[in-house]
C-alpha cells in the first residue's frame, strides 16, 4: 500500500478574517475534503490578542507583526484540525505561496487572493507545529477521532 509509506499527521488550518468575510469558508473546507483529508475539529472563533501573539510568536521581531496581530483578532476566524497521510506538506501545497501573487493557479491563495496580508488561510508548517497549534487553538472535547464506515481512500 503506497499510503503506508507516509506518516499520518495532523495540521492546523485556519480561515482568516478576510476568508470568513468574503464568504470563502465553504470553498476552503471543500478543497480539504475533496483532497481526502479528515476533519477532526471545526469552530468559528474570535481570537484574543494573547492567543494570536502566541500563535505567531516566531514572527515577533518582524515589522508587520503588530498589523498581523491586529488583523487576525479583527473578526472571527474558522479553526480547523485536519488529519491524514502527509497532510502538513500537502495542505501547504493546497494553500499555495504566502504571497498570493506568487501562488500557483489551482491553489487557494493563487485562485482567491491578491495580498500577503489578506491571504485567506493559515496552515501549519511542520508536523510539530501542527500538534502545537491544534493544542493551542482547541480545548479538550473540541477534537474528534472518528472512523468512516467505508472510505478506503482515507486510510
Ligand atoms: P501562515 O502562517 O499564515 O500559513 O503563512 P506562511 O507560513 O505562508 O507565512 P509566514 O511567513 O509564517 O507569515 C505568517 C503570515 O503573516 C502575514 N505576513 N505579512 N510582509 C508582510 O506584510 C507579511 N509577511 C507575512 C501573512 O498573512 C502570512 O500568512
Automatic annotation (TrEMBL):
Cited function: Major role in the synthesis of nucleoside triphosphates other than ATP. The ATP gamma phosphate is transferred to the NDP beta phosphate via a ping-pong mechanism, using a phosphorylated active-site intermediate.
Record family assignment: Belongs to the NDK family.
Residues of the full protein shown: 84 to 238 of 239
Enzyme class: transferase
Keyword Lipid metabolism: no
EC number(s) from the headed UniProt entry: 2.7.4.6
Domain Nucleoside diphosphate kinase-like, first and last residues per copy: 8-145
Active site: 122
Name listed for the protein in its UniProt record: Nucleoside diphosphate kinase
